[in-house]
Design goal:
Elements: H1 22-25, H2 31-40, H3 45-49, H4 61-73, H5 79-88, H6 90-96, H7 103-113, H8 118-131, E1 139-148, E2 156-158, H9 159-186, H10 201-215, H11 222-249, E3 254-256, E4 263-267, E5 276-288, E6 291-298, H12 307-318, E7 324-327, H13 334-342, E8 346-349, H14 354-362, E9 375-377, E10 382-384, E11 390-400, E12 406-414, H15 423-426, E13 434-437, H16 439-452, H17 455-478, H18 489-511
Parallel strand pairs: 1-7, 7-8
Antiparallel strand pairs: 1-5, 2-3, 4-5, 5-6, 9-10, 10-11, 11-12, 12-13
The structure holds iron/sulfur cluster.
Residues 385-387, 389, 414, 417, 420, 422-423, 426-427, 433 line the site of iron/sulfur cluster (SF4).
């Protein structure tokens, strides 16, 4: 027996007695309400004051801020898609009070207006969340991740190739000058030596003119003449280009022509985790309980040199020093340990070979030739090698890190390694073995080790994996934020702030 099919009433012309309000259509604990409430509690007076006044009316910055943060929370990063959502999506319409700014307004607000204000707004949101008790600013987990810039990967400028090109010009100037000297030698004269040791655009021009003057009226080789003409026409222009590129590079090794603030970095973003060189930014982030508590941007590929500024930024913005900081071996340098010690922060920061050291200890495997295993007599400041030979202090030297941090290295040398039966196992140098010891680093590493293997240290190391790394995973994979939309470090700073706020508010909306 067939049963009667019943369809629900479908009538597009059905009228309501009372028109529905958008507010009725937004569920009570929907993330859009969280964004709305939190941003309503944030002081944006500085942002409001940045409007000049006069002319046509402007969209309210609080509304635009809410819309953009909510858009980032919904994985909408394109200003055109945000504009579309403001016309089609009830939650966006409710949030914007049915204001409909176009994509240019959204883009200008995001890229220009927010530049000086977003970081402060982000910190206010973090403080609000801390007051709610969902995160703490006392214990932070730090790590870095690289995000691709809005630039093509074939737009590179390499510092090394600029250096090579400059060297090539210098070499050719030398060859031309050698030719002048040869001509003058035949005439038993000595020309005035030009100075092009450290070449720049003026020195190149002056040297070419000097060579030209010296060879004026002489019967010179056709090839030399051609080279001189080429040099006059091209080298000053090329040199001007190299100087301009070096000014953009500063201490970096590369940059992208499309986004000169972006540096080429190895990014493991394919499914096989193969590193690919792409223009990008190194984002340094602190988290607590999977909430982002702070972020800074670095243009260097290594994390080591970024920690000092990152911690200083936290202290400056929250007016409070974290009590503990946990980070991986990428941050375990003498400079970082010293800085954290000076700031009285307990550092659960691994150093290179920490894990290997632990594994070797478990397997009771030690290398008797390693400097750490050699016997040391404090009274005589002497090490003793495995053959029992004294290794006397032969002096010390100081070196500076990239950030200008000074390190003191002490050197010790064996008296005679000739004919030693252990030599092949001990060292590869042709001379007697020299070992270098940095006592401050040795002390700091021992301190770090004690902390890392303590009960609290083991717990912190475990938490680091599911705290800060999980945040990067959420941003890159769940929020699909793998490439910046904007160009230039100031605009990229705004974008990372927006994604950080979106991440925090999304997590908070799931937690309450
Ligand atoms: S090679 Fe030199 S330093 Fe090494 S064990 Fe022999 S004597 Fe000592």
């Amino acid at each position: 027996m067939s049963r009667k099919v019943i369809f629900k009433t479908y009538n597009q012309d059905q009228l309501s007695l009372l028109p529905p309000s958008y507010d009725d259509l937004v569920p009570a604990h929907h993330p859009v309400r969280i964004v709305n409430t939190i941003i309503d509690h944030v002081d944006i007076s500085a942002l409001e004051k940045s409007y000049k006044g006069g002319g046509t009316s402007s969209y309210h910055p609080r509304m635009l801020l809410k819309v953009i943060i909510y858009a980032y929370l919904r994985n909408l990063y394109s200003s055109r898609k945000i504009e579309q959502a403001l016309h089609e999506n009830i939650h966006f319409m409710w949030l914007s009070g049915q204001s409909k700014p176009d994509h240019n307004t959204i883009n200008d607000f995001r890229g220009k207006r927010l530049q000086k204000h977003l970081k402060k707004i982000f910190h206010q949101v973090v403080v609000l969340l801390a007051e709610e008790g969902v995160l703490s600013l006392k214990d932070i987990f730090v790590d870095g991740t690289k995000i691709e810039a809005n630039a093509n990967r074939y737009t590179f400028v390499w510092g090394k190739s600029i250096k090579t090109s400059k060297e090539r010009i210098k070499k050719q100037l030398n060859e031309l000058w050698s030719y002048v000297e040869k001509v003058y030698k035949e005439e038993q004269k000595t020309p005035n030596q030009p100075d092009f040791e450290a070449i720049d655009i003026h020195k190149i021009e002056a040297t070419i003119n000097q060579i030209n003057d010296a060879l004026k009226g002489k019967d010179i080789d056709k090839k030399v003449k051609q080279k001189l003409n080429y040099a006059k026409k091209n080298w000053p222009t090329n040199m001007a280009k190299y100087q301009k590129q070096e000014a953009i590079l500063k201490a970096r090794n590369s940059y992208s022509k499309t986004d000169p603030d972006a540096t080429f970095m190895r990014m493991k973003d394919d499914h096989l985790q193969n590193g690919q060189l792409k223009p990008g930014y190194n984002i340094q982030a602190s988290t607590n309980n999977q909430y982002l508590t702070n972020y800074t941007l670095a243009q260097t590929t290594a994390d080591t040199t970024t920690l000092k500024d990152h911690v200083a930024d936290h202290i400056e913005n929250y007016n409070e020093t974290p009590q503990t900081l946990t980070a991986d071996a990428g941050y375990g340098s003498e400079e970082n340990y010293t800085d954290l010690e000076d700031k009285n922060i307990t550092a659960f920061v691994k150093y290179n070979y920490f894990h290997k050291e632990q594994q070797d200890k478990k397997k009771e495997k030690t290398n008797p030739f390693h400097p750490d295993q050699l016997q040391y007599h404090k009274e005589t400041d002497t090490y003793y090698c495995p053959m029992g030979q004294a290794m006397a202090n032969i002096g010390s030297y100081k070196k500076k890190t990239q950030n200008g941090f000074e390190q003191e290295i002490h050197r010790y040398q064996a008296q005679n390694c000739q004919g030693c039966p252990l030599r092949s196992l001990c060292h590869k140098s042709k001379d007697n073995r020299i070992i270098e010891r940095n006592y401050n680093l040795i002390r700091l590493k021992a301190k770090a080790k004690t902390l890392l293997i303590s009960e609290q240290g083991i717990a912190k190391r475990k938490q680091r994996c599911w705290d800060v790394e999980a945040v990067f995973g959420n941003i890159k994979h769940n929020m699909n934020f793998k490439r910046f939309m904007l160009r230039g470090i100031d605009k990229v700073n705004v974008e990372i702030g927006l994604i950080a706020m979106a991440h925090n508010l999304k997590k908070y909306s799931l937690a309450i």
